[in-house]
């Protein structure tokens, strides 16, 4: 007679699925506890909001101050939504750096050994870091986007070019902007796992995001739009504009970068001595 | 229980751990003794699955470490107390460790209490002294109430009270039937804490024996003696088979004869003794005796190498 038993006995291991499900839950919980109990996490979130909203407002002012010099065609393609969401670039850099640090701070102090002793499933640890960091970056960026949009539209109202939040594409732009920054955070965790030193990894991330904007100028137009920083900009657009991917495509491109970086970091972290 | 079989770690051409086979058994404190760079920490990292052995294997409670479910419930380890991100509080640091192995949060309060850090539970770890970090590391090791505990140089940075505390803690953990594995380069400390010794030098296990036996086998007891007629005494002791070493202060260190034989010889020859003291062998001496040919660099070798080069 066969009976189903839930008692774990040495000769009869519990089903693999239930072990790995509990394992994943434990690792996710531990990584979330790590992230939220570090005061600098919350300071970084506050900094992201302050700088991001400030940058959105500054760009909105700068755009509208040039309104009277714009050609009719420039006014035609003016995108009041993306012009008020420039803060995503700040969020990408600041939260991306925070993501880098969730890995590099542990390597530089040596705490990674405590982490991997407590959780020997290293790939799951890295995946959990990426997941918690993405989950953290999303609402922070979204909040910044809503604030940036509202303030920006007040500025644009002076020239009667403001759009309402219910306007087609606006909510998508805010949402995609937050998704893009979450994906940049995943890229940050991956770069952290590959480089392991805070300074080197943070610089690399900043170059990929910001440097892409300047170095990207020298790339053929067709390539430039695939730079992570430019793709992040494309994610918050409503109007289709030349030299930028469609928002959905931009998200897919960022997701591919995130998967490649995190995958490479996983392989490296799992196979080297900690 | 920790069992290593031909455990080897090579870095390029350097062999950090060389075919180490040993068992660390429950119910006693096993000291892991060796000079710096002997391979103690590398061995411990391999036990914890942090470094992959070049060959050989090591099992903890019958399993490779990385196969353990909730490893903190089986093995608690403290490798480097300073290896900690400083921004979190002590309680938060223990909280994520507890979460990672499904350990109830109330256990965090318990272990903080055991190590005497309850008052600073909410303080940033970055502000801790080395001694407080050691206590926090020990709290982390005890978190899962593990059957096996492993500490790398745990008394570093502790004050005398702390050292006494940790010595008693190790002994009580062993008395509870746990496996206690403790590395140190401080031989005097090992002599007082460890019941059993595993001695490593240049990556090789050169002794696996009880502490008492180790001292008895690897050191020669000597007698310090001072006499009114030192030359006469030296002559008579040498005649009776003793090995005499004269000290600058007029005393001599005698090996090969015990204090009774020395006293008898002096009285037979009418020599007046001013001092007669048995110099108990120490773990330190035993260690140097055993590792004389094993340590990487000592003066003679160094000269030899430089001439050869």
Can you tell me about this structure?
The complex is a heterodimer of chains A (274) and B (309). Chain A has eleven helices and no strands. With 274 residues, chain A is an all-alpha fold. Chain A has one domain. Chain A is elongated, with a radius of gyration of 22 Å. The N terminus of chain A is likely disordered. With 309 residues, chain B is α/β, with parallel strands linked by helices. Chain B folds into two domains: 208 residues, P-loop containing nucleotide triphosphate hydrolases (Rossmann fold, 3-Layer(aba) Sandwich); 61 residues, Alpha-Beta Plaits (2-Layer Sandwich). Chain B has eleven helices and 13 strands. In chain B, the strands form three sheets. Chain B has a six-stranded mixed beta sheet with strand order 5-6-7-3-8-9, with helices on both faces. Chain B has a four-stranded antiparallel beta sheet with strand order 11-12-10-13, covered by helices on one side. A three-stranded antiparallel beta sheet of chain B has the order 2-1-4, with helices on one face. In chain B, helix 7 packs across helix 10. The interface between A and B is medium-sized, with 29 and 35 residues.
Spatial order of the strands forming the largest sheet of chain B: 5-6-7-3-8-9
Give me the secondary-structure category of chain A.
mainly alpha
The topology string of helices and strands of chain A comes to HHHHHHHHHHH
Number of strands of chain A: 0
Mean pLDDT of chain A: 91
Give the CATH topology of the largest domain in chain B.
Rossmann fold
| Major β-sheet annotation of chain A | none
Oligomeric organization of the protein chains? heterodimer
């Amino acid at each position: 007679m066969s009976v189903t038993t839930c008692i774990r006995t040495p000769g009869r291991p519990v089903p693999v699925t239930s072990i790995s499900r509990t394992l994943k839950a434990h690792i996710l919980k531990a990584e979330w506890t790590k992230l939220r109990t570090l005061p600098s996490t919350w300071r970084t979130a506050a900094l992201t909001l302050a700088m991001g909203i400030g940058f959105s407002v500054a760009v909105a002012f700068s755009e509208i101050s040039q309104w009277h010099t714009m050609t009719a065609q420039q006014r035609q393609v003016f995108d009041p939504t993306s012009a008020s969401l420039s803060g995503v670039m700040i969020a990408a850099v600041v939260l991306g750096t925070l993501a880098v640090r969730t890995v590099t701070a542990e390597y530089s102090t040596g705490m990674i050994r405590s982490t991997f002793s407590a959780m020997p499933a290293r790939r799951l640890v890295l995946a959990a870091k990426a997941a918690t960091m993405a989950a953290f970056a999303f609402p922070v960026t979204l909040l910044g986007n809503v604030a940036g949009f509202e303030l920006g539209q007040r500025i644009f109202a002076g020239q009667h070019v403001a759009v309402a939040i219910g306007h087609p594409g606006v909510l998508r732009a805010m949402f995609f902007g937050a998704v893009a920054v979450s994906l940049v955070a995943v890229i940050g965790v991956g770069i952290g796992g590959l480089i392991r030193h805070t300074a080197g990894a943070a610089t690399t991330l900043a170059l990929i995001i910001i440097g892409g904007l300047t170095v990207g100028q020298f790339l053929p137009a067709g390539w430039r739009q695939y730079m992570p920083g430019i793709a992040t900009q494309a994610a918050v657009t409503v109007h289709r504009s030349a030299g930028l991917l469609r928002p959905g495509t931009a998200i897919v491109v960022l997701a591919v970068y995130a998967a490649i970086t995190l995958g490479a970091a996983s392989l490296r972290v799992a196979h080297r001595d900690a | 229980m920790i069992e290593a079989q031909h455990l080897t770690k090579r870095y390029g051409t350097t062999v950090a751990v060389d075919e180490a086979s040993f068992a660390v058994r429950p119910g006693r404190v096993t000291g892991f003794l060796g000079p710096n760079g002997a391979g103690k920490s590398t061995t411990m990292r391999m036990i914890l699955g942090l470094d992959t052995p070049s060959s050989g294997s090591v099992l903890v409670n019958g399993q490779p470490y990385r196969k353990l479910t909730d490893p903190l419930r089986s093995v608690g380890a403290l490798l480097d107390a300073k290896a900690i991100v400083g921004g979190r509080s002590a309680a938060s640091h223990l909280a994520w460790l507890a979460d990672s192995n499904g350990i109830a949060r109330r256990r965090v309060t318990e272990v903080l209490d055991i190590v005497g850090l309850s008052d600073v539970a909410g303080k940033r770890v970055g502000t801790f002294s080395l001694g407080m970090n050691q206590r926090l590391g020990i709290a982390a090791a005890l978190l899962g109430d593990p059957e096996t505990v492993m500490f790398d140089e745990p008394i570093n940075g502790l004050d005398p009270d702390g050292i006494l505390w940790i010595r008693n803690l190790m002994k009580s953990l062993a008395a509870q039937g746990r496996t206690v594995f403790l590395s140190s380069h401080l031989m005097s400390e090992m002599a007082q804490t460890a019941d059993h010794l595993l001695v490593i030098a240049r990556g090789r296990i050169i002794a696996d024996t009880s502490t008492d036996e180790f001292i008895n086998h690897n050191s020669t007891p000597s007698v310090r003696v001072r006499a009114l007629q030192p030359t006469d005494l030296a002559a008579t002791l040498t005649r009776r088979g003793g090995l005499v070493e004269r000290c600058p202060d007029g005393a001599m260190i005698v090996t090969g004869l015990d204090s009774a034989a020395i006293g008898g010889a002096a009285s037979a020859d009418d020599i007046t003794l001013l001092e007669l003291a048995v110099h108990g062998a120490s773990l330190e001496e035993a260690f140097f005796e055993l590792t004389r040919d094993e340590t990487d660099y000592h003066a003679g070798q160094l000269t030899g190498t430089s001439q050869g080069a």
